Amino acid sequence: MSLKILTEHCSTPGIETLEVYRKKGGYTAVEKALKKMTPDEVVEEVKKSGVRGRGGAGFPMGMKWSFLAKPEGVPRYLVCNADESEPGTFKDHYLMKTIPHLLVEGMIISSYALGANKSFIYVRGELMYVIRILEKAIEEAKAAGFLGKNILGSGYDLELVVQPGGGAYICGEETALLESLEGKRGNPRNKPPFPAVKGLYQSPTVVNNVESIATVSWIVNNGGEAYAAVGVGKSTGTKLISASGHINKPGVYEIELGLSCDEFLNSDEYCGGVRTGHRLKAVVAGGSSVPIVPGSLFLKNANGEDRLMSYESLSDGGFATGTMLGSGGFIVFDETACIVRNTWNFSRFYEHESCGQCSPCREGTGWMQKVLNRIEHGKGSMSDIDLLVDVSKKIEGNTICPLGDAAAWPVASAIRHFRDEFEWHIKHPLEATKPGAVYAGAVLV
Amino acid sequence: MEDIKPTMFKVTVDGVEVEVAPGTTIMQAARQIGPEVAPPAMCYYEPLKGSGGKCRACLVKVAAGSAKDPRPMPKLVASCITPVQDGMVVENFTNPQVVEARKGVVEFLLLNHPLDCPVCDQAGECHLQDFAFENGVSTTRYEEERRTFEKEDIGPYIQLHMTRCVLCYRCVYTADQITDGRVHGVMGRGDHAEISTYIGRAIDNDFSGNVIDVCPVGALTDKTYRFKNRVWFSKPVDAHCDCDKCSGKVQLWYRGDEVIRVTARKNEWGEVKEFICNTCRFEKKKTSDWVIEGPTKVNRASVISANKYGANLIKKPDFALKLAESQYKKIDDSRPYVNEMAEIKQSEDYKALMQKNESFFKK
Amino acid sequence: MTENNNIVFTPERLAKVQEIIARYPEGRQKSALLPVLHLAQEQFAWMSQGVMDYVASLLSIKPVEVYEVASFYTMFHLEPVGKHVIEYCRTGPCVLMGGEEVFSHLQQKLGIKKGETTADGLFTLKEVECLAACGWGPCFQIREKYYMHLNNQKVDEIIEELSK
Description:
Chain B: Its main location: membrane. By secondary structure, chain A is of the alpha/beta class.
């Protein structure tokens, strides 16, 4: 059994209550941090842990914390990004509904470390039932003296607010999230200034993902070095992977980073293999935004070496042959899946979710969707393939926020690895549009 | 007492060096050098706080971040919102990546733009026309249906053509910063975002007419000037009046002896110098309402002086033009299966399929 | 479309609005917009202009600030809706789990297409993007409740239960 830093107690009945959570050692980290550690010492431990942002970008959390500006007399904010909306990702949903106190405890310690007296958890509005669970947990924590004024006699005050979103993927981008939290449209801001200098209400702000903050209690209890000892290289600790698609056991799994991809996909401890009776065609390893790769390139890199579930190993080979760990949204496609249809589906998602602020993303996502739609429904022409590649290149890197890249990569990678499937669709519109029709020439594992 | 001069930053744009004050943006530094290196701007508007960063027309390459840290910036940056550093080297028209990206932006902005220039009042002073002419290509690769919107009447003075809008947000900033109560804004999102007053609330405010002047395209035009004239057939003169609401400094646009339009005065970048009130703009259409100062000095590059689009309005480096020509990738559709495809497309089955899927192609 | 009459929150919700506003720093009451819009939809079912103007007045902001926000976020219904709004996920992972078949069955069962409301005003179908329940798909949401691991039979049962 591998180490479970976040999910160890998830199957314990009643773990959503403060009582059971405390019986399992909950809130000891708050006591340790507030009574025995200075804020800087907490930051130091998080830095030592090497934990990287779990929302997708993978930026070292301790470093992000150390960038926070601390001008005199200006409030600082910690905002937890619980806007989980990336197709394929549902780990934060799982964590918050199952063990809400883990996030609340992490928020208290992190806020203390950053010197924030008011912190927010921004949860996507669709998860209203999870918001109620979190609010209840906060009430309990408050009644027990872990929140409010002078927490545990330390002199430290903290108020924790749960904020609902309203249905917008873009609010997972940190500056769009801050705009939304200010009651505005979720238009990402131009950077600089970065939130660490001017964030919520123009004050210095740190935005961290749910899973990142949930690790903090364990790091405080066990030390940053213990956390860094788990994992491989710069991919320290454990990671929640949301597994979906054509596998025997979809669900959320906590893995030690560095686990072999083969084991994650095929062992019964995790995904339990591709759907029985079917074969592996393709994998999206880190959420819909990351490049899709054929099954063979997921299991082994271009040099034939085993791939590992880590930031570095998955991105080995760059965009030519690699992909990304992203937010850990692991989607498996077997031979029944049509790559063209899926690419169109994802493309439609990005068109729908583009905020419309900057022209390459606003116009480009719609264009790609319309071209893919034509190909999928039998009206494509061969030049469309080159066109899609070119449009994706003109979006990538040229937009205000990463949504443009996120829209471009799935299209570019699908064409890179499955070009013959696109060509088959275009050349054989009558066959390709039959219900359930799939290109027969795909290389399967 | 001696003046204490702030330390000036040295910046190079397309090989030309300029000294600017710290805090200056790349765009402003380039504008100080002159129009031959100034990046185009479709959303940035100096008089409006917070504008810029959206259209991506002004993307440039920072080839060296500063003298201290000469590493290039990894991505192209929006020059209108990026402050300069001492020793920064910027490539604008001289960088292939920039030229290519900008061509992309032209194409994106034109995708859903109606190209109804012949009946558009903005034609001739349209920034999208200029931008496309100077930075784009003359063909389109877009085969899909263009976006349309339901028509909306936003009051007696201003005509809204949403299909022409490029979502620069300038009018929203104007209403926020110049008028005392914004009633319009951007509704919806993504490629269906639109400027709207929502449910037909009319814009009536003493300074609302300024949204016409800031609009880079023909999305917001002057209803009192509608279809009256082409701008290059009219003659602008500077004039002023004693107004208790605004500076009263305007431009009168004449057709013969008739004042057909009143606008604010603009600088060489097309930005309003002083915003004017609706009374001056819409209600003083007689020469006797004004003190005439003389003909407006019109930029050499303007169609208003050229009376047509010429080939060399603003001289761009030859390199950039040649590159734009060579880089535009002609799509290869000459492969052998084209014949086969033609056959399929003639078949009854294919026609039936297209009929069945028709709903997918109409949006 | 002016139905300003009778657009008033219940006393409980009014108290809740005050509680929400108090969460934010002084002068930042606009932050309460999304939570208050959710409250409004709970009571008034959809965002008529009257409802949005009412929300604007409660938060001392301009009506347009409410319109531009309500129209940005997909959870707010800008048109009248049926009693039960079924928001089903159309995104990739749910499709892989059989979502397209299940939701075409749902449409047949109700006799309506996406975006439409049944003649009896009981159900509205709304197609939405990923609901962050990919491993538990296909899924849809009705108000706050998630319905997951759907198949045709489950869909029938849910519709029958809600039709009672």
